[in-house]
Amino acid sequence: MRAVPRRFELTLQTEHDPGMVVRLRPAGEFDGSVVPAFDAVTTRVGELAPSAVIVDLDAVTLLDSAGIGAIMRLRSLAQDRGASFTLLAPQPFQQRLFTITGLSHVMEA
Fold first, then answer.
1. Which of 43, 63, 93, 106 is the most buried (most CB within 10 A)?
2. Does position 7 have pLDDT exceeding 50, yes or no?
3. Residue 5: pLDDT above 60?
4. Using CA of residue 46, residue 48, residue 50, residue 55, what is the dihedral sign?
5. Per-chain mean pLDDT for the chain
6. β-pairing verdict for 59-63 and 52-56
7. Phi, psi dihedrals of residue 87, rounded to the nearest 5°
8. How far apart are CA 55 and CA 58, in angstroms?
9. What is the pLDDT of residues 61-107, one digit of tens each?
10. Closest by CA position to 80, among listed 40, 108, 107, 53
């Protein structure tokens, strides 16, 4: 098992396959204290006008309601712009959070 940073990091990667795909990889603790940074990146994603947005939560060690809210805002932005949205939540605690909140339909295991 690899070490995951406690502090928050966010990687934005773009791919062209065939349209623009934006992949976001947050790492560390995704809570209310880092939502403004995530929201700033969300604005940038909207400006890029991708055909698909993927959020990969593999390296997230903590996810609270503020983080979930930020993810859902990004999902709405992507869908409003006609982009597909994929949420990869591979860890059991993440899957439980999305199930408990009634949002399990937005994630891909």
1. 63
2. yes
3. no
4. negative
5. 88
6. unpaired
7. -110, 120
8. 9
9. 999 999 999 999 999 999 999 999 999 987 899 889 989 999 888 87
10. 53
Distance CA 70, CA 37 (A): 10
Query: pTM for the whole thing?
Result: 0.86
12 in Cβ contact with 45 (< 8 Å)? yes
Position 105 scores a pLDDT of 84
The two structure tokens encoding residue 94: 């993440």
Q: Which residue has the tokens 């934005």?
A: 12
Label residue 1 by pLDDT band (50, 70, 90): very low
DSSP result, the chain: -----SS-EEEEEEEESSSEEEEEEEEEEESTTTHHHHHHHHHHHHHH--SEEEEE-TEEEEE-HHHHHHHHHHHHHHHHTT-EEEEE--SHHHHHHHHHTT-GGGEE-
Domains of the chain, each with CATH number or no CATH: 9-108 (3.30.750.24)
